[in-house]
Amino acid sequence: MREMSDEERRAFLLAGTRTGKLATVRRDGRPHVVPIWFVLDRDDVLLTTGADTVKGRNLRRDPRVCLCVDDEEPPFSFVMVEGEAEASEDHDDLLRWATRLGGRYMGADRAEEFGRRNAVEGELLVRISPSKIVAQAAIAD
Fold first, then answer.
1. Domain residue spans of the chain
2. Which of 3, 5, 30, 69 is the 20 to 30 Å CA partner of 134?
3. 91 near 6, Cβ under 8 Å?
4. How far apart are the first and last CA of the chain?
5. Each residue of 51-96: pLDDT tens digit?
6. How many alpha carbons fall within 13 Å on the CB side of residue 64?
7. pTM, 2 dp
8. What CATH architecture does domain 2-137 belong to?
9. pLDDT for 106
């Protein structure tokens, strides 16, 4: 096992259509974990979600989040990002980042379609600013 460099970590996070598992804090303190699509802006993680979803309500009430992205194939690797989430309803930013998300996960030919679909009233752009990052490669080596 070894620590990834910053460049390796970014490449790992942006590889293919790998999803993240985002944990938010419920009102009673229990964790809530769901898979998400995400992109990076430097070290910040960006995603979209509905304002009225469990994760949307959770992160607006308590911005503490944790994201885990892993490689499920040997020799196994993962990146864990702890931080605080900031939610925005700015339409222009939402459209720009939702389009990038659509391009990553659905392909360039469908990027605009998914951007428009997800940049609507009731959707949030979420930016996670990391306070701690753990990035381990080749865990089974």
1. 2-137
2. 30
3. no
4. 6
5. 999 999 999 999 999 999 999 999 999 999 999 999 999 999 999 9
6. 7
7. 0.94
8. Roll (2.30)
9. 96
